UniProtKB/TrEMBL annotation:
It is a multi-pass membrane protein. This is ABC transporter ATP-binding protein. Residues 365-605 form the ABC transporter domain. One of its GO terms (cellular component) is plasma membrane. Keywords: ATP-binding, Membrane, Nucleotide-binding, Transmembrane, Transmembrane helix. It comes from Xylanimonas oleitrophica. Its main location: membrane. GO terms for molecular function: ATP binding; ATP hydrolysis activity; ATPase-coupled lipid transmembrane transporter activity.
Length: 622
C-alpha cells in the first residue's frame, strides 16, 4: 500500500512543472468527468421513476407522462452534456500537460547526462540503455513518460472519487450493494495493475534490442548516411535488420499481450460476478414490490460505472510506465552523480582548485606513470606513460594508428580518469580540479569534432556570446574569411543541408571552422591548445597559413599537436613518438633524425613518398 502511495506522490510531484493553474484545471475536469457516470445513474433513476409514477397515475395519458418526465429528462441531458463537455475539454488539456511535464523531464535528463564530469559512465552500455529508457523521446513514439504517468495518476485518483460516488449511490438502495460490486471490481483493478507492471518490465527488457533497431532506423532516414544507402543499395538490408531487431526485442511483450487478449474473458467474468448478484437482488425486490424499475436502472448504471472507473487498463499502463521511467531516472542520476571516491560514480571535483588553473598562466600538465584501459576492456591503451605537456612548450605527438594519441588527449581533458598513475596540473591532481574551470583553460579540437547543424556564427562561438569584434578579429586572423565569403548568408548561414537556406561545408572548410573555435577559446583565456589532426583535410597552402598563425600564439599558449603529417612537426619544440601507449622516442626533429630510430624511418618514408609523387607529376607534365 505504501508503495502505491509513494509511487502516486512521486508521479504527482512532476506536476510542479505544469504550474498550479493548469494542474487545477486538469484535476477539476477529470473529477467532473469521473463523477458523470454516477450523475447519469442518479439522473436515469429519477427519469425512470418519473415515467413509472406518472404512468401509474390514474387517468394520465402520454401527455401527462411527458410533462412529469420533463424535468428529470432535462436534468439527465444536462448531466450528460456536462460530462461530454468535460471529456472533450480534458483531452487537449491533458495533451498539453503531458507535453509540458515531459519537456521539463527531458531537459533535466539532457542536463544530467551532459554535465556528468567524465565520459566513461555515459559510454557504458547500461547507462546508454537507461538514457534510452528515460529520455522520453517523442520520435520513438513512447507512451511511457513521466507526464503520461502523472496524468494517468490524476485520472486514477479522480476515478476513485467517481467510484466512491457510485458506491454511495448504490448504498442508498442497499448498504450491501457497494460491497457486492466493489469486491470483484477491485480485484479486476488489481489484476490490471499487475498486468501493466509486467508489460512495463517487458518493455524495459526490449530496450537493448530497440537500441539496435535505432541504429538502423536512424541510418535509413539520416541524410548524412543517404549517400551510401543509395550508392551501395543498402535500403532493403537496413530495413530488414531494423525489423529483425524490433521483432526479436518485442516478441516476449507481444506474446504476453496476446495472452492477455485471449484471457480477457476472465475480466468479463469478474464484471458478471460483480453485477449479476446486485441486479438479481434488486430485480427480486422489484418483483416482490419492495423495489422498482428506477432502482434497477440506477443500480445497473452505478454498478457499471464502478467497473468502468476501476477497470480501465489505460491509466494503469501509463502509471506503471511513468513510474518505471522515474525509477530509472533516479538510478541514472545516482550513477552519474560524482562521489567522494570509492563509490560507483565519478569523484567530486573541485576540492583543490589551484590558483594557476584560474589564473592566466600557461598550465603544465604532467602524466605520472599513467596507465589506462577503456572501461569494460582488457587492453592497456596507455602504459606507464610519463610526459609533461604545456608551460608554453609546443609539443608534437606522433605515432601509428591506434597508438593511443587521442586517448591521451581525452585523459588530459579529464574525460576519463587514469586506470593507474595520475595527471597533475601545476602539481594538483586533475581529479581534484573543477572540470569546468580546467576545461576553460583548454582550446581543444578533437579529431572527430562535432559539425553542429547551426549557423556558422553559432558553430564557432558555441554559445559563448562572442561579440562581433571577436568575430571580426577571427575573420582577419584565422582564415575563416574564405569560408564566410562563400556562404549565401555569411555568418548566419546554417551549416546543414536539411535546414532552410542551409549549406554543407567541405572537410577542409569544417576544419577551418574548428580552428576558429579554438582561436576564440584562446581569446577567452585558454592557455593550452590541443589539436588532434587539425589540418588533415586542408590544402597545402591553407595548412601552411594555419601553422603560421598558430606560431603567432607562441608565448600566449602552450600547444599539443597530434598529426600524421610529419613535415608539419619539424618546428615543434619537442616531438614525442608513441607506440602501444608508451613513449619510445622524444626530442626535437634534428635530435630524432640523428637518433635514426622509428621517427627518422617514418619521416624518411613520408619524404620519399612526397618526392616520388612530385617526380611522378613532373614526369607526367614533361
Ligand atoms: N571509447 C573507446 N572504448 C574502447 N576502446 C577505445 C575507445 N576509443 C579508442 N579505443 C581504442 O583505444 C586504442 C587507441 O585509440 P586512439 O584513438 O587513442 O588511437 P590514436 O593513436 O589516436 O589513433 P589514430 O592515429 O588512428 O587517430 C585503439 O585500439 C582503439 O580501438
Amino acid at each position: 500500500m505504501t508503495r502505491y502511495v509513494r509511487r502516486a506522490v512521486r508521479l504527482l510531484r512532476t506536476l510542479s512543472d505544469l504550474g498550479p493553474g493548469p494542474t487545477a484545471a486538469v484535476v477539476a475536469l477529470l473529477v467532473v468527468a469521473a463523477l458523470m457516470p454516477s450523475g447519469l445513474a442518479v439522473a436515469l433513476g429519477l427519469l425512470v421513476n418519473a415515467v413509472e409514477s406518472s404512468a401509474g397515475t390514474q387517468g394520465s395519458g402520454p401527455a401527462g407522462v411527458s410533462a412529469a418526465a420533463m424535468l428529470p429528462l432535462v436534468g439527465f441531458a444536462a448531466v450528460y452534456l456536462l460530462g461530454y463537455f468535460a471529456e472533450s475539454l480534458v483531452g487537449p488539456l491533458e495533451y498539453l500537460a503531458v507535453s509540458r511535464v515531459d519537456r521539463a523531464h527531458r531537459a533535466r535528463v539532457a542536463q544530467m547526462v551532459a554535465e556528468a564530469p567524465t565520459l566513461d559512465l555515459v559510454e557504458d552500455a547500461d547507462t546508454q540503455r537507461m538514457i534510452r529508457e528515460v529520455e522520453a523521446d517523442p520520435r520513438m513514439g513512447f507512451d511511457r513518460t513521466p507526464g503520461q504517468g502523472a496524468l494517468g495518476q490524476v485520472r486514477a485518483l479522480a476515478g476513485l472519487v467517481g467510484v466512491l460516488c457510485a458506491a454511495a449511490v448504490l448504498a442508498v438502495h442497499a448498504w450491501w450493494l457497494p460491497l457486492v460490486v466493489l469486491a470483484p471490481a477491485t480485484l479486476n483493478r488489481f489484476l490490471r495493475n499487475q498486468q501493466a507492471v509486467v508489460i512495463t518490465r517487458h518493455w524495459q527488457a526490449a530496450m537493448s534490442g530497440e537500441m539496435h533497431a535505432d541504429v538502423w532506423r536512424r541510418a535509413t532516414v539520416d541524410a548524412g548516411a543517404g549517400k551510401e544507402t543509395r550508392v551501395l543499395g543498402l535500403a532493403q538490408w537496413m530495413t530488414d535488420r531494423m525489423q529483425r531487431h524490433i521483432r526479436e526485442a518485442n516478441t516476449p511483450l507481444w506474446r504476453y499481450v496476446n495472452r492477455l487478449v485471449l484471457d480477457e474473458w476472465s475480466q468479463l467474468l469478474l464484471v458478471v460476478v460483480g453485477l449479476a448478484p446486485a441486479l438479481l437482488l434488486v430485480t427480486l425486490a422489484a418483483a416482490d414490490g419492495s423495489g422498482s424499475l428506477a432502482v434497477q436502472a440506477t443500480v445497473l448504471s452505478a454498478g457499471t460505472a464502478v467497473f468502468q472507473l476501476l477497470g480501465s487498463s489505460g491509466a494503469a499502463h501509463r502509471i506503471a510506465g511513468g513510474d518505471a521511467v522515474l525509477t530509472t531516472t533516479a538510478k541514472l542520476a545516482e550513477r552519474l552523480r560524482p562521489t567522494d571516491g570509492g563509490g560507483h560514480g565519478p569523484r567530486v571535483p573541485g576540492r583543490g582548485l589551484t590558483a594557476s588553473a584560474l589564473s592566466g598562466a600557461m598550465p603544465v600538465v604532467t602524466f605520472e606513470r599513467v596507465s589506462f584501459r577503456y572501461p569494460g576492456t582488457e587492453r592497456l591503451v596507455l602504459d606507464s606513460l610519463d610526459l609533461t605537456v604545456g608551460g608554453g612548450e609546443n609539443l608534437a605527438l606522433v605515432g601509428l594508428n591506434g597508438s593511443g594519441k587521442s586517448t591521451l588527449v581525452k585523459l588530459l581533458c579529464g574525460l576519463y580518469r587514469p586506470t593507474a598513475g595520475r595527471i597533475l596540473v601545476d602539481g594538483t591532481d586533475l581529479a581534484d580540479l573543477d572540470p569546468g574551470a580546467w576545461r576553460s583553460r583548454l582550446a581543444v579540437i578533437f579529431q572527430d569534432f562535432v559539425h553542429y547543424p547551426l549557423s556558422l556564427a553559432d558553430n564557432v562561438t558555441l554559445g559563448h556570446g562572442t561579440p562581433d569584434e571577436a568575430l571580426g578579429r577571427a575573420v582577419s586572423q584565422t582564415g575563416i574569411a574564405r569560408v564566410v565569403d562563400r556562404l549565401p548568408d555569411g555568418w548566419r548561414t546554417p551549416l546543414s543541408r536539411s535546414r532552410d537556406g542551409g549549406v554543407d561545408l567541405s572537410g577542409g572548410q569544417w576544419q577551418q571552422v574548428a580552428l576558429t573555435r579554438a582561436w576564440l577559446a584562446v581569446e577567452r583565456g585558454a592557455r593550452l591548445l590541443v589539436l588532434d589532426e587539425p589540418t588533415a583535410h586542408l590544402d597545402v597552402r591553407t595548412e601552411a597559413e594555419t601553422y603560421e598563425r598558430l606560431a603567432g600564439l607562441r608565448g600566449t599558449t602552450g600547444s599539443l599537436l597530434i598529426t600524421h603529417r610529419l613535415a608539419t612537426v619539424r618546428s615543434a619544440d619537442r616531438i614525442v613518438l608513441l607506440e602501444h601507449g608508451a613513449i619510445v622516442e622524444s626530442g626535437d626533429h634534428d635530435a630524432l633524425m640523428r637518433l635514426d630510430g622509428r621517427y627518422a624511418e617514418m619521416f624518411r618514408a613520408q619524404a620519399q613518398r612526397f618526392e616520388n609523387d612530385l617526380s611522378g607529376s613532373r614526369g607526367g607534365t614533361e
